[in-house]
Design a protein that fits this description.
3 helices; Thrombin, subunit H; 6-stranded antiparallel barrel; 2 domains; Pdz3 Domain; mainly beta
Length: 336
């Protein structure tokens, strides 16, 4: 679950760990309990610029030109600025090209996590009269992930448990603040060497809330108070010091929109890990293995529960064994 597949795939204050963790009290009272999630959520994410998904020609009065290709731009690059002015959307890039009047401009580009600059000369399209550079671009992606928890007092929620990147390892931001319930309509099973994925549909008439933040530990926002919490378990959050090797469960939705509980085993606890990998877990539930092959994309954020307490969330899958994966301690998610 290191990336979100476009239109497929597809969380209170204090510090314990890097990434905004909270010191958890093992004697937390009723006010410190959380609804356990497990429901899939659909959301819109921004590429924090305009991502190139294809290169094309520009038909000018003097013939065909390929400005982007000539400038060394590639599919997967994300244009984040033009002549030093931030670019967040397709319309902002088009406006920058028009301002150029056909003169050379400097584009700031992200490529596989690295930032570079390149000069390009826009060409005037013969038919539209607009200046273009010969790229097919997008500025948003839609995906699904799993809600981990909802604070029963503030309705603050957390999901995913890890940063959100596209296939080129560019971090994504929030494009549309609305988060919708998502119905899982199919699964591409995970197999050795290839991660599986959930296939889902946004239920646009069933908003879950608003997304407000994306960071290294997940996606966070405010849940809709009108949501029916009657099917959600209410429990305390436990610190990593209470996690033990042995049996646990995860809550996930792999069919429809209702979370189910599945058995797993915690095989390693690493409180010092700073990369959202505080647990190594193994799926032991034959139902989940039969349906998905184990852990698949879209299950990121699935709550991990042990001894009646919320202790973390699923974050990654092992590509060489889809029944195994990593999890983040819940203390690293609370506080965001």
């Amino acid at each position: 679950m290191r990336k979100l597949k476009f239109f497929l795939v597809a969380l209170l204050v204090g510090f314990l760990f890097l990434g905004g963790g909270v010191r958890l009290d093992a004697n937390a009272d009723e006010a410190d309990k959380y609804y356990v999630g497990g429901m899939t959520a659909g959301f819109m994410l921004s590429a924090e610029g305009t991502e190139i998904i294809g290169l094309s020609e520009v038909a000018t009065g003097e013939g065909l030109r390929r400005p982007a290709e000539d400038a060394g731009l590639r599919v997967g690059d994300t244009i984040v600025a033009a002549d030093g002015i931030r670019i967040r959307s397709i319309s902002e890039l088009n406006a920058a090209l028009e301002r150029s009047g056909g003169e050379e401009i400097t584009l700031t580009v992200k490529r596989r996590g690295e930032t570079t600059e390149t000069q390009v000369v826009p060409a005037k399209d013969k038919k539209s009269g607009k200046y273009k550079i010969g790229v097919l671009i997008r500025d948003t992606l839609a995906g699904i992930g799993t809600v981990t928890f909802i604070d029963c007092k503030t309705y603050r929620f957390g999901a995913l448990g890890h940063d959100v990147c596209d296939e080129n390892r560019n971090s994504l931001g929030i494009a549309d603040s609305k988060v919708f319930l998502c119905s899982v309509i199919g699964v591409n099973r995970g197999v050795r060497g290839r991660a599986g994925e959930l296939r889902g549909l946004f239920l646009n008439d069933a908003p879950l809330g608003k997304a407000e933040k994306v960071c290294s530990t997940g996606l966070y926002g405010t849940f809709d108070k009108k949501y029916d919490f009657s099917h959600c378990e209410l429990m305390e959050a436990a610190p990593l010091s209470e996690a033990t090797i042995g049996k646990a469960t995860i809550w996930s939705t792999v069919d429809g929109s209702c979370p189910q509980q599945y058995e797993i085993s915690i095989v390693k606890v690493d409180a010092d890990n700073r990369e959202n990998k505080n647990f190594v877990i193994k799926v032991t539930d034959s139902r989940l293995i039969e349906e998905t092959g184990g852990i698949v994309q879209g299950m990121s954020g699935s709550p991990i529960v042990q001894n009646g307490k919320l202790i973390g969330a699923v974050t990654h899958v092992f590509l060489n064994d889809p029944t195994r994966g990593y999890g983040i301690g819940i203390g690293n998610m609370l506080g965001n």
